[in-house]
Design a protein that fits this description.
10-stranded mixed β-sheet, about 30% strand, about 20% helix, alpha+beta, about 250 residues
């Protein structure tokens, strides 16, 4: 059966996260509501990743099997006419039988945005972590280097994470600094719960001089979450892109 693939952009500020939950609005519920209206019947979608409450996306991917897909314009223009202003379909395609937004993914890239200035920045408060003390970006970059490669990231794993293990491969971990902002770009084959936010929280401690950059290898080896930094707030995190193998 053909599979419809949607690339979604959303501002997660007012949502409980991607997944449908009883305690508030979710991105998944909005997407499924719009699809149900288009198809005149319920549709359930699978996402590449379950972003948390307050987390944003530029390239979230969702998919669902569909025996008779609608014209692609219906999934873009039609859904965007039905979705709230803070959720949009950027692109749609029809993929071969067996494609699954989550299981077929071979990696993801997240960007965490930090605004580093002496005063509040109201216009970016919902898309960044605002840190008012100066950050040492060079020290943070030095601390990030040992996290590249394949490691057990249990030290950066949420206590309630349901993953069977925390071994992941980080292919890119880069700090980009410009104009009073610092972005932490992390690309990996997969992530455990809160992995990026816990890495960022730890790197910020290094940047503030509260932790030595040289301590990161021992922290990683110790696999003890209580020894790592705080979980960075959700609003700075954005799922930028999901990677899939080339079509054969």
């Amino acid at each position: 059966m053909p599979v419809v693939k949607l690339i979604l952009e959303y501002d997660g500020t007012r949502y409980v996260g991607w997944q449908v939950q009883p305690n508030g609005p979710s991105i998944q519920a909005e997407v499924e509501r719009a699809l149900g209206t288009l198809h005149h019947a319920p549709r359930r979608v699978v996402a590449a990743g379950r972003t948390d409450a307050g987390v944003h996306a530029l390239g979230q991917v969702a998919s669902f099997p569909e025996a008779a897909p609608l014209p692609l314009s219906a999934y873009v223009k039609g859904m965007n006419a039905l979705l709230p202003a803070d959720v949009a379909v950027r692109a749609a395609s029809v993929e071969p039988d067996g494609f699954d937004a989550r299981r077929s993914a071979r990696g993801k890239r997240y960007r965490y945005r930090i605004v580093n200035g002496p005063t509040r920045a109201p216009l970016s408060r919902l898309q960044s972590w605002q840190v008012f003390r100066p950050l040492d970006a060079a020290a943070m970059a030095a601390a990030a280097a040992p996290l590249l490669g394949r490691h057990d990231f249990a030290a950066f794993q949420a206590a309630d994470c349901e993953a069977a293990h925390a071994v992941r491969e980080v292919r890119r971990l880069q700090l980009v600094s410009a104009g009073g902002e610092l972005a932490v770009v992390v690309e990996a084959t997969a992530f455990v719960k809160h992995m990026v936010r816990n890495i960022v929280g730890t790197l910020v401690e290094v940047g503030l001089g509260q932790r030595e950059a040289a301590s990161i290898p021992a922290l990683l080896e110790g696999r003890d979450r209580t020894r790592a930094g705080r979980t960075a707030p959700p609003q700075g995190l954005c799922l930028e892109e999901v990677f899939y193998p080339p079509l054969q």
